Amino acid sequence: MSEDRGESEGRGGAEDVLDVGVGPHPEPWPDDPRLDPDLLANGDRRNVVDRYRYWRREAVVADLDTRRHTFHVAIENWQHDFNIGSVVRTANAFLAAEVHIVGQRRWNRRGAMVTDRYQHVRHHPDAAALGAWAAAAGLPLIGVDNLPGSVPLETYPLPRECVLLFGQEGPGLSAAAHARCEAILSIAQFGSTRSINAGAASAIAMHAWVRRHVFGQEPGQEPPAEVDG
């Protein structure tokens, strides 16, 4: 049995219940060391893009490692926040360098939809440890929270190399985390709610980084006009 299929069943079969993927590969099988014989024989129902069908998990991670982006994502975990899984899943989608869990080591993996297999995740016992790691790596901590004195994310020039730091659902960034941030960014809101959850906030912030550093769109700049034809 392949490692991927076995782990999926061990965690409740999150991927197996999805009606996605492909069936057994027609024989003769391709001669490619990246491919998993068990997946070739039984089909690949994992939640991965078509490029990685039938690939071994280690091969997928190795390929992702050749092109990961230079931003990191960190989230505080003091209350076993259910949003953490969603943050990990989104970090995988936007190809973050790493996700950093700050606080409790155990976190709610359900929302990750097994993407933590392909995403590097690092643990720090507290904000001081995260701050020390980031300083040693030369990465500024950029907090994202709607706090007094925060700067709009929409106008802030996100650094190419940084750690985007998010707090818990409800209390937001802890005082210890806030004190170690180079900047605190807020996300513009226009309705009645006072905040959005960390999963949504992280997706918005990561996409802002991608717009700036992948598509070259500066903060506040209008998107390029569509070209006919």
Q: If you had to describe this structure to a student in words, what would you say it looks like?
A:
This protein is α/β, with parallel strands linked by helices. The chain folds into two domains: 3-65, no CATH class; 71-213, SPOUT methyltransferase, trefoil knot domain (Alpha/beta knot, 3-Layer(aba) Sandwich). It has seven helices and seven strands; from the N terminus they run αααβαββαβββαβα. It has a seven-stranded parallel beta sheet with strand order 3-2-1-6-4-7-5, with helices on both faces. α4 links the parallel β1 and β2. The chain starts with a helix and ends in a 16-residue tail after the last helix.
Gap between N and C termini: 49 Å
* SSE class: alpha/beta
Helix share of residues?
A: 25-40%
Q: For this structure, what is the CATH homologous superfamily of the largest domain?
A: SPOUT methyltransferase, trefoil knot domain
**In CATH's first tier, which class of the largest domain applies?**
Alpha Beta
Could you describe the largest sheet, including whether it forms a barrel? 7 strands, parallel
Count the domains. Answer: 2
Low-pLDDT segments: 1-18
| Whole-angstrom Rg | 19 Å
Strand content range: 5-15%
The helix count comes to 7
Fold-level CATH name of the largest domain: Alpha/beta knot
Q: What strand order characterises the main sheet?
A: 3-2-1-6-4-7-5
DSSP strand count: 7
Question: What string, H for helix and E for strand, traces the elements in order?
Answer: HHHEHEEHEEEHEH
Summed over residues and divided by their number, the pLDDT gives a mean of 89
Gross morphology is: elongated
Please state the second-level CATH architecture of the largest domain.
3-Layer(aba) Sandwich
